[in-house]
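seq as requested:
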Amino acid sequence: MTEQPLHPFHRAGRTGSWFDWPVVTAIRRLGRAPAVNAARRLLRRADPVFSVLLAPYRFLGRRLGAAMPKGLYARALIIIIAPIVILQSVVAFVFMERHWQTVTRRLSAATVRDISAIVDLIETYPSDPTYEQIIRIAQDRLGLIISVVPGEPLPPAAPKPFFSLLDSALSDEISQQIGKPFWIDTVGKSNLVEVRIQLGDKVLRVLARRSQTYASNSEIFIFWMVGTSLVLLVIAIAFLRNQIRPIQELADAAEGFGKGRAIEDFKPRGAREVRRASATFIEMADRINRQMEQRTTMLAGVSHDLRTVLTRFRLQLALLRENDDVRAMRRDVDDMQRMLEGYLAFARGDVDEPTVKTDVAALIADVIEGSRRVGHLVEARFEGDPIVSLRPNEFKRCIGNLVANACRHGNTIVVTATHVEGWLTVTVDDDGPGIPEDQFEMVFRPFYRLDEARNLDESGTGLGLPIARDIARAHGGDVTLSTSPQGGLRASIEIPA
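struct tokens:
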């Protein structure tokens, strides 16, 4: 058998019959057809109209989204309770309302039958002008209060209520069973329903208890809805609380680990997916801790070896005769020492320092006092509770880097700190030349240098601002730059407290 060559559609790596390729070709041609292009142009023109029509729905969606709770616990309660309550309301309204509608029509029919019997008695025995026996029988046996008023016309027809099951049921039954002109009053606030029937030259007036003609379901319906909703809410709260608590514990553990706190009492709990996420988080935290320990060990070795070499340089320089070359070499060794310390501090990050409650006001005062001793004019203000949980040495260095950067480029420095609503904010303002706004983020890159060297620390390594941001982010916050009201640069530290 001769093997047929593969169609290009098959050679492309796809499977199918020989009919597939003509179908695909036809679809592609159809996509380029004038009618299809015209439809596309029409849809593009109609897009603004659809946008205007959908604007109210989008606005309502945004408002509803803003009003909805943001927590998982509240949203889960709404997801569970809302559909059940809505379904229950629809079922209860449909079935219970139909049940009470049937009961009301039967009660109205029974009452109208009694009234019809009284009408027959009045028309059959007209010899008694007072109708005392009929009135007595109606009151004692039928529970109806009747009176016969001669020569009185029916009152004018009142407007019917928009929705009244009793009014429609009584009207239908009187028309079917009695078939005489009538007037009814079912809207009054009393517990009685009044019916008047025209009997020739006289009018039969009937007062019946509303409970004889109407079965009200409002109280039972409300009680049913409120009672069952409360039961469902209690069950949902009891169930969801145990399901949400492990997720909250995982979030707290992740937040604490991000701030450098040790994970001690955290254990996987809850549903299988939550346990899996918790176990994965613990493994990740262990790997990060091992890497940090290895990096700390390596940096300790590098620091020891390099400091040994620099110490030998200093000893050799001390043995030489003092001259300009020796002094220049000694300055170079000092610069190397400062640069080494800056590099190691940036790489190490002081991750082993524990988080403790610290008086931030005293810490800032200590930093400012050091700047004042070397002749800088620094002012400080603090608002709120000064006690904050943080790593004091790291945070002091963060503020010190920003204050030192401001002191090198400004004459007047103002440090403002506030602790309100769970956040600690520290701003450092100076009256120096500042930096361009498009460089606010670039100066946080390690070793990045501007012409004015605004991001250089004392060693000239360009690590002052990067170290400050790393410390702030290790506390769960950040460092941002903006233009100071004094005309220079403003550096802001924000961390959760």
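The first helix runs from residue 8 to 11.
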